[in-house]
From TrEMBL:
<protein>
    <recommendedName>
        <fullName>Secretion system C-terminal sorting domain-containing protein</fullName>
    </recommendedName>
</protein>
């Protein structure tokens, strides 16, 4: 049957296609059925197929199948083709229609385990026999916002008359609509036949983040009196500690009549509450995890050790105890905060100048127990006191570095921690728990309210001067992380792994026009990964390093994922923070600079534009730091193309590319490519030379070896001559009068290039 016109099927009637193919003609034709009670139906018999359904022609209303084989009902509405696949257990009618409207009109209640339901669409599926159900999505479905950018949280939901419930289902690796399932399009199928007598309304939903299992109590109690009175406890057993205990432990509930001591890497994993007069004594990289959000939390004593710090360096902190007053008292006391852990040795705390970020005023303000609630962060600055020298000479504050030990004692946080998030502004998000929390789960939880990027402060660059002011700190010292991975802040520095350690806070950016609340809970807590103090990870990725002769370092990450687009994707593309005082390398989306950029699935013809920013003149190098996935075995070569010199440099095997740059910011010279144009016309060689004078130095670079350079002033007088250069890059001091000069540069091929230079 070929429908090339307009067909309308009235309520209570049907058109039955018994065999063959039903063809949907292109634009201009339509197939519409009544949608009310007793709707019209376009029915397809067993063995019938359809062809040509598109966003311009589909069944706008109800379609039905009578077979037991999987059948794609080509339904839609409002210019949207949204097919649903059904496979009934019997050859009786199963019909369906698509509604491009919020399912809240059906009902709003959510069952436990469901975080959200689509606000834009649902399907009505009617049958008297169980059937497998698969639903599709597309750009208009906004699955990315629904799931927080994590397809692992996507599920089919069904309305049972009182609430939306999870229909156990799995995202199809290959969508029944064609192509791989991604955040922008795909399909998901029920794991079993669905009872259509109970469920007839279906939509897409988001599951709550996966939390730890709440093990059922065994009814057994294990007691420690210096040794166990029976087998080692499991997560089902209650435990009583009557004598000091050291080491990892798991249990269902815990009574502490003595202290429990955890060293670095050890874990206390408790399903429910902790009571008693004892406390959990924790080193900085130990972990305490409670699974039940409402369980009683224990008294802890946590000693955190920072990385080595200079005077006036600062660190981002957060309270792991439930009283900010207690935590601030610990931070400001020499008895609990001291360099090298020498508590009580020095006259004051190792820190001073405690600040937090006020988004409304777009400025740092003094932090106190009132304006830094639990779940928020603050910065603390290292004081200038012993054991640091008192000299203000640069050599002293650059080289003296000591770890600061912070000891806090109090009842720890457990379960729900609501965090106020400002409108359109920066803020410190703090880890409130005595264990690491998952950055991936955190980014899932924020939905569309924030940029899905974590910025970790690393205090790696020495201050520009002795004065304690914001301009003396370098924003290049922020390490960056999103779903695609992390980039380090310095050569040899730790690359963030997406975990936020205990007592640590990170910088985040709200993008909503109104203030919101972010609810942290035990689902975020991690049993491991508590040593990073400062989803789906794409496997096709690589890191580029920029290094400079003056000590500059910048790392950028390029990754490829089916979940990404060429535009900005929250959680996959992370902006580079401004304010760096050293040279930086970023990739570009439009004119915006990114520390991390994720592009769609890899194609050999892709090109990635780069930008190099250089606050002061130095010789720079771009190198390949690491590579994974399709780049791992070298079969895909990563080339750096220098359009100024016409050079394709093989970063995969050719080592670093060295260059000089005459401008402060260059967004057009470099790009990454994966295939080359090998020939450069000979008559273009003379233009492939760059030369300039900057910061009392003469620079020159060519795509072939430079033989000699002669500098003339505008009178034609020879100022200086350099012979036997024999290198592609040249740099020498240039201490001559300000003015205009001409460089005559002879290349090894005999080509001579003349360049006009300005010495300012």
């Amino acid at each position: 049957m070929y429908n090339g016109g307009s067909m309308y099927i009235h309520g209570g009637t049907s058109v039955y296609v018994s065999s063959g193919v039903y063809y949907f003609a292109p634009a201009g034709a339509s197939t519409v059925t009544a949608r009310g009670t007793g709707p019209g139906v376009l029915a397809f018999g067993p063995g019938v197929t359809t062809s040509g359904a598109s966003p311009t022609h589909f069944v706008d209303g109800y379609a039905a199948t009578y077979g037991t084989s999987a059948f794609d009902l080509p339904v839609g509405q409002a210019g949207i083709l949204a097919p649903v696949r059904v496979a009934s257990s019997a050859s009786t009618e199963t019909r369906a229609a698509y509604f491009y409207t919020s399912p809240s009109g059906i009902g709003a209640a959510l069952s436990p385990g469901i975080n959200a339901v689509s606000s834009v669409e649902y399907w009505h599926v009617v049958g008297n026999q169980p059937a497998f159900v698969s639903v599709s999505w597309r750009n208009t479905s906004d699955v990315s916002s629904l799931t927080g950018g994590n397809l692992n949280r996507l599920t089919i939901v069904g309305w049972d008359g009182s609430s939306w419930n999870e229909i156990p289902s799995t995202v199809d690796a290959t969508s029944f609509t064609g192509g791989a399932s991604t955040l922008t399009s795909g399909s998901i199928s029920s794991n079993a036949a669905v009872n259509l007598s109970l469920y007839s309304y279906f939509s897409l939903g988001s599951k709550n983040p996966v939390c730890y299992t709440l093990a059922t109590p065994s009814g057994l109690t294990r007691t420690w009196n210096g040794s166990w009175d029976g087998p080692v406890p499991t997560l089902s057993d209650a435990v009583v500690i009557n004598a000091p205990y050291s080491g990892s432990l798991q249990c269902n509930s815990l009574v502490l009549n003595a202290d429990l001591i955890l060293s670095d890497g050890e874990v206390l994993d408790v399903v429910y509450g902790v009571t008693g007069s004892g406390k959990v004594v924790m080193s900085g990289e130990a972990s305490l995890v409670q699974r039940d959000d409402s369980a009683a939390a224990p008294l802890i004593q946590l000693t955190k050790v920072t990385n080595p710090m200079r005077r006036l360096d600062y660190v981002f902190l957060s309270s792991p105890v439930n009283s900010m007053s207690v935590y601030m008292a610990n931070l400001t006391s020499p008895l609990t905060t001291a360099v090298n852990g020498n508590f009580g040795t020095y006259p004051a705390s190792a820190f001073f100048s405690y600040l937090t970020y006020n988004a409304a005023g777009n400025a740092y303000v003094a932090a106190n127990a009132t304006n830094v609630p639990i779940g928020k962060g603050l910065s603390a600055t290292v004081a200038s006191q012993a054991p640091y020298a008192t000299s203000t000479a640069p050599g002293t504050w650059f080289t003296e570095m000591y770890p600061v030990h912070i000891r806090t004692t109090g009842t720890t946080n457990n379960g729900l921690v609501p965090v106020s998030v400002p409108a359109n502004g920066w803020f410190f998000l703090g880890n409130p728990y005595p264990c690491a929390i998952s950055g991936e789960k955190l980014l899932d939880a924020v939905g569309t309210t924030m940029r899905k990027t974590l910025y970790y402060w690393t205090h790696t660059t020495p201050r520009a001067s002795w004065n304690n002011s914001g301009s003396n700190y370098n924003n290049a010292d922020f390490a960056t992380w999103n779903y695609s991975g992390g980039v380090a802040a310095c050569a040899g520095c730790q690359v963030p792994n997406g975990k936020i350690a205990s007592m640590q806070s990170v910088l985040m950016r709200s993008i909503t026009p109104a203030a919101t609340t972010l609810n942290l809970n035990n689902c975020l807590r991690e049993l491991t990964g508590n040593d990073n103090f400062f989803r789906h990870v794409p496997s096709d990725r690589y890191w580029l390093n920029l290094t400079g002769s003056n000590g500059s370092f910048c790392q950028t990450l390029i990754s490829y994922s089916a979940d990404a687009t060429l535009g900005e994707d929250s959680g996959y593309d992370s902006l580079k923070l401004g304010g760096a005082t050293t040279s930086s390398l970023t990739s570009l989306i439009g004119t915006s600079r990114y520390a991390i950029q994720t592009r769609p699935s890899f194609e050999i013809g892709d090109q990635v534009p780069l930008q190099v920013d250089q606050p002061s003149a130095e010789t720079l190098q771009i190198s390949l730091a690491n590579h994974e996935g399709v780049f791992a075995d070298g079969s895909v070569v990563i080339y750096l193309f220098d359009s100024l010199l016409g050079i394709y440099h093989n970063l995969s095997t050719g080592g670093p590319y060295t260059f000089v740059q005459s401008v402060t910011a260059d967004a057009t010279r470099f790009r990454i490519v994966y295939q080359t144009v090998l020939s450069v016309p000979d008559n273009e060689l003379s233009s492939k030379v760059v030369s300039y004078i900057k910061d009392s130095a003469l620079y020159a670079q060519s795509n072939e070896s430079i033989e000699s350079i002669v500098i003339f002033d505008l009178t034609g007088r020879k100022v200086v001559e350099y012979t036997n250069v024999n290198a592609a890059i040249f740099q020498k001091p240039f201490h001559h009068a300000q003015g205009v000069y001409v460089a005559k540069i002879r290349l090894s091929s005999g080509v001579v290039a003349n360049r006009k230079l300005m010495n300012q």
